[in-house]
Design goal:
Helix content: 40-55%
Largest sheet: 2 strands, antiparallel
Shape: elongated
Radius of gyration: 25 Å
Structural class: mainly alpha
Strand order of the largest sheet: 1-2
């Protein structure tokens, strides 16, 4: 069961406005950088990964795989490889997290505590990424093709007629589905409202009081005026006429 995130106190008190968007965040936003760096340090501090004959082996391997230059600052503590991995930022930090997960999976290290912690960090931060089902790396919560299609659709809706614009409802549905504290009920509700708004703009743009009921009635009474972009069946497959 999911619940809507609790509004900030400043919003509840009327001191500030609610954030325009609360996820999903791509790349590594500022509020996620330090928690991810700390997670890398925590995940690497696992005795199952330590080779007592080569204590830097794991970290050196990951640095080499990612072509990360080491940091020669002994006063910061830790090995030069450890410093390089735990000080990564931006997309490189995501690469490090992904590589650590992959290395653990390769070695058969079932580090449930680290996985649980990383999952919580990514979920609470509203990250656009999550731990893959196999625990062997990161993956996008939504595929780029779907994400880009949604953005394009929202932009098109926003550029359309003011009456019946579905842009706000689409954006709200997207955030409710993939932002912090996913709310399936609201995502579904906003999606339906988006469809209704889009239909309003096409079917009854001049009727400020249009409802789904009035629009369905107009479609029923003038079916010849409307068509849908539904792909035709494959060759050789006979389509069945709709029942009346």
């Amino acid at each position: 069961m999911t619940t809507t995130p609790r509004p900030r106190f400043s919003v509840r008190a009327g001191l500030t406005q609610a954030p325009a968007a609360d996820g999903p965040f791509e790349d590594v936003p500022e509020h996620l950088q330090l928690p991810l760096q700390e997670w890398v340090a925590y995940a690497l501090d696992n005795q199952a990964l330590v080779d007592h004959d080569d204590e830097d082996g794991v970290e050196r391997t990951i640095c080499l795989r990612l072509r990360i230059a080491t940091i020669h600052k002994p006063h910061l503590g830790g090995s030069k490889y450890h410093r390089a991995l735990t000080s990564a930022v931006g997309p490189l930090l995501l690469d490090v997290v992904d590589a650590v997960l992959a290395y653990k999976a390769e070695r058969g290290v079932n580090d449930q505590d680290a996985i649980r912690l990383l999952t919580d960090i990514l979920d609470e931060a509203g990250s656009a990424y999550r731990v893959a089902e196999a625990w062997d790396g990161l993956e996008e919560r939504v595929t780029p093709a779907v994400r880009d299609a949604v953005r394009h659709t929202i932009a098109d809706a926003a550029a359309g007629a003011v009456a019946g614009s579905a842009a706000d409802h689409l954006a709200a549905a997207w955030q409710a589905a993939y932002g912090r504290g996913p709310d399936a009920v609201r995502a579904y509700s906003e999606s339906i409202k988006a469809v209704e708004s889009a239909a309003h703009a096409v079917i009854q743009p001049n009727n400020a009081k249009a409802t789904l009921g009035t629009m369905l009635g107009e479609i029923k009474n003038a079916r010849h005026k409307f068509s849908t972009a539904i792909p035709a069946p494959a060759a050789g497959i006979r389509s069945r006429s709709p029942r009346r």
